[in-house]
Write a structure and sequence with these properties.
Layout lengths: L1 E4 L6 E4 L9 H14 L1 E4 L6 H8 L22 E4 L2 E2 L2 E2 L20 E10 L2 E2 L2 E2 L3 E5 H6 L3 H6 L4 E4 L1 H9 L11 H6 L3 E4 L1 E3 L6 E3 L6 E4 L4 H15 L5 E4 L6 E5 L3 E5 L10 E8 L6 H11 L1
Helix pairs in contact: 1-8
Length: 300
């Protein structure tokens, strides 16, 4: 297996491995280390089903199931379908494009570590792929913050709320999403995390706030919190921090939620079919120093 960095601010390509087969410890370790270093790794020309995607993904940590079990595999409920395709008048998956910038699972008490997606169908127009995914590098965004802000907010915390994102989607023209029920809200209550995280693989400082879910910097007055978050959101989304992955059918894309934001581009129509299957992995292992030490030791 080879992991070759892109000529961008982030991202790499992994080759020489079949991810449908059990992953040797040394290959897992190199992928694990590569996620900390590159943020996003694409493995092209793969062939996975729900079972093998789950098997690969759970090496990195526990897997989240969807709220209400929507669009999940009947045998492997940890595997969700993302798609704009419709059959007999029913959507085949959750439409994920056009949801704006966010970090999956920052709304959980246990945040997310990685997303793993397998491209089943990729829309094309005039021979060019559509529906790319844009990433932003939160280590670079933190590094470039004003030093006085780093110092003043060094111990600050931020509240993240799933309902913020849900309501933003409901407000979009044509949306049919109902409001979250009391039961659903109870299952996804607001969560509080450090505004600046230390990445458990690299030790780098990370800006951990995103427009999708971040609601409030708790140590600041409400008006100042809103002003600082507005600054941070604009700062972290500068083009110089961004990298776009252009999908090809058969890609397995894995990315690090801790050090990145992402945004799926809705540049395709309903007759231009896109389908992915996905696992979302909790950060329930990666913050364990013994787990990290073992993984990085196998990569040495």
């Amino acid at each position: 297996m080879q992991i070759t960095p892109n000529d961008d601010i982030m991202g790499a390509v992994g080759t020489g491995i079949d991810l449908s087969q059990p992953l040797p410890d040394e290959d897992f370790a190199r992928i694990f280390a590569g996620l900390g270093r590159h943020g996003v790794i694409c493995f092209p020309d793969q062939s996975l089903d729900a079972g093998t995607l789950k098997q690969f993904s759970e090496r990195f940590g526990g897997l989240q199931t969807s709220l209400g079990g929507l669009y999940t595999d009947p045998v492997h409920p940890e595997v969700m379908t993302l798609s704009n395709m419709v059959k007999d008048g029913k959507p085949l998956g959750l439409a994920d494009a056009g949801q704006d910038w966010h970090t999956d699972m920052s709304y959980n008490q246990m945040i997310g570590f990685v997303n793993v997606l397998f491209a089943v169908e990729v829309p094309q127009r005039h021979g060019k792929p559509l529906g790319g995914t844009v990433f932003a590098n939160m280590k670079a965004a933190y590094d470039d913050l004003p030093e006085d802000m780093k110092t003043r907010l060094a111990d600050a915390t931020c509240t993240h709320d799933f309902n913020k994102f849900w309501e933003a989607m409901r407000a979009r023209p044509g949306s049919t999403r109902p409001p979250l029920s009391a039961e659903q809200r109870a299952k996804r209550p607001p969560a509080t995390h450090p505004l600046f995280l230390t990445h458990p693989i690299t030790g780098d400082r990370i800006l951990y706030a995103n427009p999708g879910y971040a609601m409030r910097i708790n140590e600041l007055p409400e008006d100042e919190s809103a002003e600082v978050l507005e600054f941070l959101f604009a700062h972290q989304l500068q083009e110089k921090y961004q990298y776009t992955h252009h999908w090809t059918k058969g890609d397995v894309l894995i990315w690090d939620h801790i050090g990145t934001l992402h945004n799926a581009i809705a540049d395709y129509g309903p007759d231009e079919h896109r389908m992915m299957i996905r696992c979302q992995v909790y950060a329930d292992k990666v913050f364990d120093p013994s787990f990290v030490q073992h993984a990085l030791g196998a990569a040495a």
